[in-house]
Amino acid sequence: MSWDLYFANLGRVLRITGCPEVVDALRQALPGWSVEVFDAKGESPAIKLWRERDGYRQYSPELPRGLRLGTPVEAACSLIADLVAAYTEHHPELIGLHCASVEIDGRLVVFPASHRAGKSTLTAAFAAAGYKVFGDDVLALTAEGLGQGLGIAPRLRLPLPAGLAAEMVSFVQQYTGPADTRYSYLVPPAGNLAHHGETRPLGAVVLLARDAGITTPQLSRLAPGDGLLQLLCQNFAHDAPSELLVERLLPLMEDTPCLLLHYSEPLAAVEAVQAALREPSLLAVPCARDEEPVSAPSPRCMGDEPWMPGATVLEYSLEEELFLVEASDGAIHRLNPSGRLVWQLLRQESLSAAELAELLSEYYAQPLEEVLADVQELLGRLANVGLVRSVATSGAATVTLAQP
């Protein structure tokens, strides 16, 4: 027997054949998203799944060659991924963010995805503490800048991490939904999971750093650019122009604090986050994020040759930092305050590393030799990605500043 599934705000997009256990698992994993099930009729929708031997086979626009799935929970996980893709495609005004999100004092605290940082477990801890969860993996961002829940239950990786507080383990056991040996859905009690389409304004972006050696959670402020860069990297709008993403996300980060949370035990982290947001004086002093490693060392730009901008870009300011979006391919570059100053000077006139160093040395009251080395390194990095080029090799070429 086959069933067609109709989802609120999306419609008939899924047909499941011969496996009612998958229908049950999917509905339990979507407690906040209204789903109606009817006997299949007419042409099959774009997403389809049927029984294949001792497992299942799924096809969709995202999986044109099909995908073999072993358990009902594995099938539900895969189907939800396709449903999210279909939902964001059906609503192009939305940007899908890859993050966890919870409501604190009427605003959303967003935790961008980071490899094995424990965002799903932390989301479960917020639910155990009585907070409303908007999602552990996906949050839709409306054109008005509001975060929108999709009604998807958090999914925990099994086994659970060692060292969890006893009350959290008890909560997870009490509200466990569909599960297999790898994953378990957590279906919070009524009121603890946002309904599909429910919205809240953003209140903070918190980057996660899980550290087993931390005994007391630590929160510190980050530059807004750290939050913007994470959200730019963790979104599902792969076909959207980079400048559109920056224009949508940048105004949010102008008014949204960005924090870094070092933690080990999730429930303790929950208490630290809510306390810091309600009393900002509890935050540690601002800290700098470690820079991402580069794939190859950038050569220093030596000599006295003058340099000029080498690409047509869109410029976006965020406090003292500058984000550049290349008009040609949408590549995004982030400049710190000193990098921004160098860029602005080069936009005014072509300058050599030595000339730039003299200007910055005077401006920052720093030794010329140290500033020169930093400027040479910066120009090398900018040249590597094509943002600057030597006037000697540019001929009569000119550079254009695109209009945002």
From TrEMBL:
The UniProt entry, under SUPFAM superfamilies, shows: PEP carboxykinase-like (SSF53795)
Check the record and name the InterPro entries matching this protein. P-loop_NTPase (IPR027417), PQQD (IPR008792), PqqD_sf (IPR041881)
What Gene3D superfamilies does its record include?
Coenzyme PQQ synthesis protein D (PqqD) (1.10.10.1150), P-loop containing nucleotide triphosphate hydrolases (3.40.50.300)
Please give the superkingdom of this protein's source: Bacteria
Q: What protein name is recorded for this chain?
A: PqqD family protein
Q: What is the lineage of its organism?
A: Bacteria, Pseudomonadati, Pseudomonadota, Gammaproteobacteria, Oceanospirillales
